[in-house]
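[recover] target loaded
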């Protein structure tokens, strides 16, 4: 006789990497969901199906606490029909694939939605986007809708207006802050499912984008102004992490936790957080005491030796991290806009401009540009700064001594 039918709700997780497997999968499991991962890594897919489980190692300075994630299965991203069927019957879906891969996810996601649309009784479906892009939800929504329009024109999908589509399918942005370092190659070869991370388990999601009931997932924190939390992630977490890394590189330090043992660098990182924190409170109305507590929590998390988070990983791709709206330039601009002098953030920007790592193609390109172009051109081409901006003027001046 067949065994009892598994009636647990199903979450389809696109991407079984650091965030998909090392964060969101854990939250789904703790909330009683059966997880179907979709990934391009055949070795990972096969290992997950063979075991039906994996462990997330919560590592801290106190030790390693493995958390068993059970009742999981995986599909190859190339197995279109199986993925479509999984989406059609899912309770919830999520992406953690990287922004560039969303274009590859959209067609199969659209076909799964099209199959779901054949049943008027099907519950609304929320697709949570755990991607490093402000506006990732609307970006994926547009990709999926464009594909659905093509399917409708070909008679492969029930006709629906964009309003009807938006009433049934929510594209819900999330703000991911759990730190999951890259798994070393030798460990990955030995066990493709092994993963370690910090135990931080809070995930703000856009409550206003949800369709039907807001998903009740442990760790999900529905908020009504997701942009405020996205900007705080960029200006508090990403900015301070980057400042620590670029300053650490200048000091010849290998690991982030070692950077946090350097009192002079910590003073700069803390000062930069204080500057952006005041600007965030002014712009978005965060509680000042809660913002300071958030900053202290981040500083404590950076001291996690067990993560083994390397300076070069956090500092990687300085051309992107010096972009006009990214963690450094964007944060300094926010400060100026809110009447806060970003003295310490500017020290971090200068360190990023000086980042010279022969193993990092972006850093090599940046230093080539600096050797062949005047400083004002770099600030324009890389940072998108106008000559009239106060940040441009400050960066053109000789560096001042770090404040005490």
């Amino acid at each position: 006789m067949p065994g009892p039918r598994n009636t647990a709700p199903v979450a389809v997780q696109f991407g079984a990497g650091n965030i998909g497997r090392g964060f969101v999968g854990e939250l789904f499991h703790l909330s009683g969901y059966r997880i179907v991962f979709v990934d391009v890594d055949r070795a990972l897919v096969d290992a997950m199906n063979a075991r039906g489980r994996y462990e997330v190692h919560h590592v801290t300075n106190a030790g390693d606490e493995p958390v068993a994630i059970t009742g999981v299965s995986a599909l190859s991203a190339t197995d279109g029909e199986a993925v479509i069927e999984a989406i059609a019957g899912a309770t919830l879906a999520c992406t953690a694939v990287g922004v560039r891969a969303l274009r590859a996810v959209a067609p199969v996601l659209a076909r799964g939605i099209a199959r779901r649309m054949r049943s008027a009784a099907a519950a609304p479906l929320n697709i949570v986007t755990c991607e490093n892009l402000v506006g990732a939800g609307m970006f994926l929504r547009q990709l999926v809708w464009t594909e659905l329009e093509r399917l409708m024109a070909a008679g492969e999908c029930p006709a629906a207006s964009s309003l009807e589509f938006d009433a049934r399918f929510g594209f819900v942005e999330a703000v991911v802050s759990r730190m999951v370092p890259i798994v070393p190659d030798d460990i990955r070869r030995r066990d493709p499912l092994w993963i370690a991370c910090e135990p931080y388990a809070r995930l703000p999601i856009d409550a206003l984008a949800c369709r039907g009931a807001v998903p009740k997932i442990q760790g999900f924190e529905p908020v009504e102004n997701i942009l405020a939390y996205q900007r705080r992630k960029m200006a508090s977490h990403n900015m301070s992490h980057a400042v620590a890394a670029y300053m650490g590189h200048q000091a010849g330090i290998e690991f982030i936790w070692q950077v946090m043992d350097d009192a002079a660098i910590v003073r700069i990182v803390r000062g930069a957080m204080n500057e952006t924190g005041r600007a965030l409170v002014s712009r978005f109305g965060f509680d000042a005491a809660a913002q300071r507590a958030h900053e202290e929590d981040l500083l404590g998390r950076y001291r996690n030796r067990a993560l083994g988070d390397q300076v070069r990983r956090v500092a990687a791709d300085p051309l992107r991290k010096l972009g006009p709206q990214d963690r450094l330039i964007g944060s300094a601009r926010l400060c100026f806009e809110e009447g806060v002098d970003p003295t310490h953030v500017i020290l971090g920007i200068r360190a990023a401009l000086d980042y010279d790592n022969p193993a990092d193609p972006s850093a090599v390109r940046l230093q080539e540009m600096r050797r062949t172009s005047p400083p004002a051109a770099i600030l324009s081409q890389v940072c998108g700064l106008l000559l009239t901006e106060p940040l441009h003027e400050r960066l053109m001046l000789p560096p001042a001594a770090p404040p005490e």
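[recover] notes: The chain has a mean pLDDT of 95.
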